[in-house]
Amino acid sequence: MANKYFLRALAILLLAVTLQHSARAQGQWIPLFNGKDINDWFVKIHHHDVGDNFGNTFRVQDSIIQVRYDQYGDFNDQFGHLYYKIPFSYYHLKFEYRFVGEWCKTAPSYTILNSGVMYHSQDPRTMPKEQDWPISIEMQLLAGLGDGKPRPTGNMCSPGTHIVYEGKLDTRHCINSSSKTYGKDEWVQAELIVLGDSLITHIINGDTVLRYSKPQIGGPVVNGFDPKQKQDGKLLSKGYIALQSEGQPVDFRNIMILNLEDRMGK
């Protein structure tokens, strides 16, 4: 039985590597962001209804989606996310990001030079007004704090979820990647290969930095949710992609996706 699972895991890993190379070679990428507006996206911010882009948090300038807080006043835990309009299951996502500007001083200190991209997220229209985070998996994005200490990016965080890491269920909220540390104001290219509810791969500037599998509902961190939406133990094979706002100004550009469902026979 153990050999059976090992061979299956090896097959999935080899498939992921093959898809990674073939996606780059074929170049059949679809832009999720048109460089002009966010009409194909919708907003959910804590303490606000779906569709309320409070404080013009998410805006577009110079072909960049900007995340800003200059119209906030007190941050008041108004964590937000910008969701692409349709869900995905098997895909290769790539985007560029950079941290800019001054951190909102009334936001929690852990949000300094910190943002993320959520995937397999619940539909934000199922989130009550006072739910803080979507039930989802996060590709966490960080920049160095200028203190000489390593601060990897492309990590995994799990609001209301768990994953299988190194062959066993891992209930830690965040797991660090093996990436280098990148600085503020530096554009970084990130890639995320998602194979439904099986293997997930994080790539930073062309280097594979983290792999895990079996994203599933479970655990804490999410608050104010509808209990019907949190079915602990349920594998996540599909969901929404969302850009995060949590107190640090950040830019996103060149957001592209390659849908892999046809190649997976889905």
TrEMBL record:
Residues 1-25 form the signal peptide. Keywords: Signal. Gene3D superfamilies: Exo-inulinase, domain 1 (2.60.120.560). This is DUF1080 domain-containing protein. The keyword Signal applies. It comes from the Bacteria. InterPro entries: AL/BT2_dom. Pfam families: 3keto-disac_hyd (PF06439). GO terms for molecular function: hydrolase activity. Residues 28-257 form the 3-keto-alpha-glucoside-1,2-lyase/3-keto-2-hydroxy-glucal hydratase domain.
